[in-house]
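for the writeup, i need someone to sanity check this before i put it in the appendix. the sequnce is what the collaborator sent (i think, or maybe the updated version? ugh). structure was predicted straight from it, no edits. if anything looks off just tell me and ill rerun, i have time this weekend
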Amino acid sequence: MEEKALLGFYEALEQASEDMLQAARNGDWDRVVKLEGACAVLISQLKHAASQRELAPEEAKVKGRIMRRILHNDAQIRYLAEPWLEDLDRLLAGTPKSIH
């Protein structure tokens, strides 16, 4: 039963990453940052829980699939964030955005 709780942390992280991706697709970067903070809390809790228990082999496979989806979501979020980060860099540097 406690292994299910441990797997639940991975599932919660996956859901948070999906929520972050949706927020990024909507251009809601404030929400992305807020969800990133929630992920940091979940990761901290997960580290503590994982230090106390190990997943069963079948649950480890589920964890692997979840982690691949999280990494895929993260890559998409980074791709969507690149233009926004470039605009932010220009804004902070005081350089106007060039229009082609």
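The mean pLDDT is 89. The two ends are 58 Å apart (CA to CA).
thx in advance!!
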